[in-house]
């Protein structure tokens, strides 16, 4: 169920990020276990603050963006869309705190964020992951995204997944 900038799934609440989420985002983005495989890797405190400002501006400009993920009122991660810095378009992102991994939360949250974006009229969304990041590959495939191309970055083979407005995707 979508209520403005909040999405509720069977067990999760996704809310558009705000400055009140800064400490949770610092904990997530400065952790190698959570953010080590993300584009740009682990963040500094300044980078987390800069990204929060960018995320808030993106929400204001596009009406979509990054959500926090909460389970039983506890922060467990983030998901949502951002403009990819490599020019590939709108990218789906997701990352969890280590203790939330392995329980289907990423799939549930990323799928809900993807549906939100498609319902908002976004026609094409990509997801990019390293070839060796099997958990992310499984999530991207399970929410209806399809591998369309590969490229090399920093010595890693990167896989690009895509979904378009016309495609159907699984429900959470």
Distance between the termini: 11 Å
Structural class: alpha+beta
CATH first level: Alpha Beta
Q: What kind of sheet is the major sheet?
A: 6 strands, antiparallel
Strands, total number: 9
Principal-axis shape equals globular
At the fourth level of CATH, the homologous superfamily is Gcn5-related N-acetyltransferase (GNAT)
Using only C-alpha atoms, the radius of gyration works out to 15 Å
Strand content: 25-35%
Could you report the average pLDDT, rounded to the nearest whole number? 91
Please tally the helical runs, counting DSSP H or I stretches of 4 or more residues.
5
CATH architecture: 3-Layer(aba) Sandwich
CATH topology: Aminopeptidase
The strand line-up of the biggest sheet is 1-2-3-4-5-6
Structure, explained:
The chain is α+β, with helices and mostly antiparallel strands. The protein has one domain (2-164): Gcn5-related N-acetyltransferase (GNAT) (Aminopeptidase), CATH 3.40.630.30. 31% of the residues lie in helices and 33% in strands. It is built from five helices and nine strands, in the order βββαααβββαβαββ. The protein has helices spanning 22-29, 32-35, 45-62, 105-119, 134-142; strands at 2-3, 6-8, 12-16, 66-71, 74-83, 90-96, 124-130, 146-153, 156-164. A hairpin with a 2-residue loop joins β8 (146-153) and β9 (156-164). The chain starts with a strand and ends in an 8-residue tail after the last strand.
